[in-house]
Design brief:
133 residues; alpha+beta; 60s Ribosomal Protein L30, Chain: A; four-stranded mixed beta sheet; globular
Protein backbone atom coordinates (compact mmCIF):
# COMPACT_ATOMS: atom_id res chain seq x y z
CA UNK A 1 0.00 0.00 0.00
CA UNK A 2 1.21 3.50 -0.85
CA UNK A 3 -0.14 6.47 1.07
CA UNK A 4 0.67 10.10 0.35
CA UNK A 5 -0.73 13.51 1.16
CA UNK A 6 -1.25 16.80 -0.65
CA UNK A 7 -1.60 20.27 0.85
CA UNK A 8 -4.21 21.26 -1.74
CA UNK A 9 -7.41 19.78 -3.10
CA UNK A 10 -6.85 18.75 -6.74
CA UNK A 11 -9.78 19.35 -9.07
CA UNK A 12 -10.25 17.96 -12.57
CA UNK A 13 -11.39 20.96 -14.58
CA UNK A 14 -13.05 20.89 -17.96
CA UNK A 15 -10.90 20.47 -21.05
CA UNK A 16 -10.27 23.80 -22.78
CA UNK A 17 -10.48 24.53 -26.49
CA UNK A 18 -7.97 26.66 -28.37
CA UNK A 19 -9.00 29.16 -31.03
CA UNK A 20 -7.96 26.60 -33.62
CA UNK A 21 -10.27 23.97 -32.14
CA UNK A 22 -7.72 21.69 -30.46
CA UNK A 23 -8.17 20.69 -26.82
CA UNK A 24 -5.79 21.21 -23.92
CA UNK A 25 -5.60 20.89 -20.14
CA UNK A 26 -5.26 24.19 -18.30
CA UNK A 27 -2.01 25.03 -16.50
CA UNK A 28 -3.40 24.67 -12.95
CA UNK A 29 -4.82 21.20 -13.58
CA UNK A 30 -1.57 20.11 -15.20
CA UNK A 31 0.48 21.34 -12.20
CA UNK A 32 -1.85 19.62 -9.74
CA UNK A 33 -1.62 16.32 -11.64
CA UNK A 34 2.20 16.59 -11.74
CA UNK A 35 2.15 17.18 -7.97
CA UNK A 36 0.05 14.06 -7.41
CA UNK A 37 2.44 11.98 -9.52
CA UNK A 38 5.48 13.38 -7.67
CA UNK A 39 3.88 12.69 -4.27
CA UNK A 40 3.11 9.09 -5.29
CA UNK A 41 6.69 8.52 -6.45
CA UNK A 42 8.13 10.17 -3.31
CA UNK A 43 6.03 7.85 -1.14
CA UNK A 44 7.65 4.86 -2.85
CA UNK A 45 4.69 4.08 -5.07
CA UNK A 46 5.15 1.32 -7.60
CA UNK A 47 3.35 0.12 -10.70
CA UNK A 48 0.53 -2.29 -9.79
CA UNK A 49 -1.08 -5.01 -11.89
CA UNK A 50 -4.63 -6.24 -11.47
CA UNK A 51 -7.40 -4.77 -9.35
CA UNK A 52 -6.70 -1.52 -7.49
CA UNK A 53 -8.39 0.07 -4.45
CA UNK A 54 -8.05 3.84 -3.92
CA UNK A 55 -9.10 5.77 -0.82
CA UNK A 56 -9.21 9.58 -0.81
CA UNK A 57 -9.79 11.60 2.37
CA UNK A 58 -10.41 15.35 1.93
CA UNK A 59 -10.00 17.87 4.74
CA UNK A 60 -10.59 21.64 4.66
CA UNK A 61 -10.70 24.37 7.31
CA UNK A 62 -13.83 26.14 8.40
CA UNK A 63 -13.80 29.65 6.85
CA UNK A 64 -13.02 32.54 9.22
CA UNK A 65 -16.28 34.16 8.08
CA UNK A 66 -18.27 31.55 10.03
CA UNK A 67 -19.51 32.66 13.48
CA UNK A 68 -17.15 31.68 16.32
CA UNK A 69 -19.86 29.56 17.95
CA UNK A 70 -19.61 27.15 15.02
CA UNK A 71 -16.55 24.93 15.37
CA UNK A 72 -17.39 22.34 12.73
CA UNK A 73 -19.78 21.78 9.82
CA UNK A 74 -20.40 19.28 7.05
CA UNK A 75 -18.20 19.76 4.00
CA UNK A 76 -21.04 20.08 1.46
CA UNK A 77 -19.56 22.84 -0.72
CA UNK A 78 -17.29 22.54 -3.74
CA UNK A 79 -15.19 20.79 -4.87
CA UNK A 80 -17.30 17.84 -5.92
CA UNK A 81 -15.85 14.48 -4.89
CA UNK A 82 -16.04 13.11 -8.44
CA UNK A 83 -13.79 15.92 -9.74
CA UNK A 84 -11.22 15.24 -7.02
CA UNK A 85 -11.29 11.49 -7.72
CA UNK A 86 -10.93 12.00 -11.48
CA UNK A 87 -7.92 14.27 -10.94
CA UNK A 88 -6.18 11.73 -8.70
CA UNK A 89 -7.01 8.76 -10.91
CA UNK A 90 -5.90 10.48 -14.12
CA UNK A 91 -2.63 11.62 -12.52
CA UNK A 92 -1.80 8.05 -11.44
CA UNK A 93 -2.59 6.48 -14.83
CA UNK A 94 0.61 5.08 -16.32
CA UNK A 95 2.40 5.49 -12.98
CA UNK A 96 0.46 3.35 -10.48
CA UNK A 97 -1.54 1.35 -13.01
CA UNK A 98 -1.94 0.93 -16.75
CA UNK A 99 -5.47 2.35 -16.93
CA UNK A 100 -7.92 3.67 -14.36
CA UNK A 101 -10.33 0.93 -15.44
CA UNK A 102 -8.23 -1.27 -13.08
CA UNK A 103 -9.72 0.61 -10.11
CA UNK A 104 -12.35 -1.71 -8.67
CA UNK A 105 -12.87 0.05 -5.35
CA UNK A 106 -12.94 3.81 -4.85
CA UNK A 107 -13.67 5.42 -1.47
CA UNK A 108 -13.88 9.20 -1.18
CA UNK A 109 -14.64 11.00 2.06
CA UNK A 110 -15.06 14.72 2.64
CA UNK A 111 -14.48 15.14 6.36
CA UNK A 112 -16.27 17.90 8.30
CA UNK A 113 -14.66 21.33 7.99
CA UNK A 114 -13.24 22.27 11.36
CA UNK A 115 -11.89 25.51 12.75
CA UNK A 116 -8.09 25.50 12.83
CA UNK A 117 -7.60 22.55 10.48
CA UNK A 118 -5.60 22.80 7.27
CA UNK A 119 -6.44 21.90 3.69
CA UNK A 120 -5.14 18.43 2.93
CA UNK A 121 -5.89 15.34 0.92
CA UNK A 122 -4.70 11.84 1.87
CA UNK A 123 -4.58 9.21 -0.84
CA UNK A 124 -4.05 5.48 -0.38
CA UNK A 125 -3.42 3.20 -3.36
CA UNK A 126 -3.23 -0.58 -2.98
CA UNK A 127 -3.97 -3.82 -4.74
CA UNK A 128 -7.57 -4.87 -4.17
CA UNK A 129 -6.91 -8.35 -2.80
CA UNK A 130 -10.63 -9.02 -2.23
CA UNK A 131 -11.15 -8.88 -5.97
CA UNK A 132 -9.08 -12.08 -6.44
CA UNK A 133 -11.57 -14.25 -4.52
Amino acid sequence: MTTFSLDYIPIKRRVRFSRRGSTYIDKTTKQEMEGIAAAYESAGGRFLEGAIAITIDIFAPLPDSKPKRISSESFTCKPDVDNVAKSVMDALTGLAYRNDSQVTKLTIRKHPRERGSVTSVYVSVKEDLNEHN
